[in-house]
Amino acid sequence: MGHWWVRNIVEPGKLPLLLALAAFVLTFVVTRVVTRLIRAGKGPFGNVRAGGLHVHHVVPGVVLTVVGGFGAVASDRHGAGAAVSAVLFGMGAGLVLDEFALVLHLDDVYWTEEGRKSVEVVVLTAALVGLLLAGFSPFGVNDLSQQELHDRGGAIATVAGNFLLSLVALGKGKARIALFGVIVPLVALVGAVRLARPGSPWARRFYGRRPRARARATLRVYRHDRRWARPRRALQDWIGGRPDPRPARLPGHR
Q: Which superkingdom (predicted)?
């Protein structure tokens, strides 16, 4: 076990990345536990206020991210400074992305439907960092042989091809597949060859005069969302807490 740790984590310089990922996940989990206790009125915790102003935890998160980021740039990745900076950066990123929806909407949507975006972004970030930690390189660079690495043309063609596949998947409205496709190229290929989601830039550009393609795309999205929407919402509720119910609208109000 010790030999594996040194060879796969310490020698390649992956220890800071592992520490950052662990701090990121742990900070997110602790933050969600504390906020759910505050929401339920349990425990000794409470919202932080300064002069009547509610200080959201994205504020210390930004500070920790800045300190950790600059510390990582200034330190040797094999030294103690890099480890400390990685932990600070991971903690800061966990606090910031836990309130990603607040930053996106510029409104306190933490316990609303819009707040689910924070949970989704945190899960995606943890998964992508985990893939990088496992040895995957962006755009399939890790799949190149030594001869291809020395051949600039082959390396550039591989990177450009995988980038194009991810771009097509993104244009088809498949942001998650495009993100994972950056790290795992075959995932981007799946998103690139399948039908685009209705309303995506690709669908507006290429399905405008193809009613059959539009109908097939709409039916496929309906079936996909009907199958996966409920399990996805249940997982998000389990991780981040159930959102507050939307207030009922009075007749005649919009």
A: Bacteria
The predicted-structure confidence for 33-85, as pLDDT tens digits, reads as follows 999 999 888 888 888 888 778 889 999 999 999 999 999 888 877 788 889 99
Contacts of 161 (CB under 8 A, 6+ apart): 185
Enter the tokens of residue 35. 């906020």
CA–CA separation, 89 vs 231, rounded Å?
32
d(CA 149, CA 167): 23
Cβ(233)–Cβ(115) below 8 Å = no
| Beta strands in 44-103, from DSSP E residues, in sequence order | 49-50, 53-54
Q: Is the dihedral of CA 45, 47, 49, 55 positive or negative?
A: positive
The radius of gyration of the chain's CA atoms, rounded to the nearest angstrom, is 22
Cα separation, 166 vs 186, whole angstroms:
10
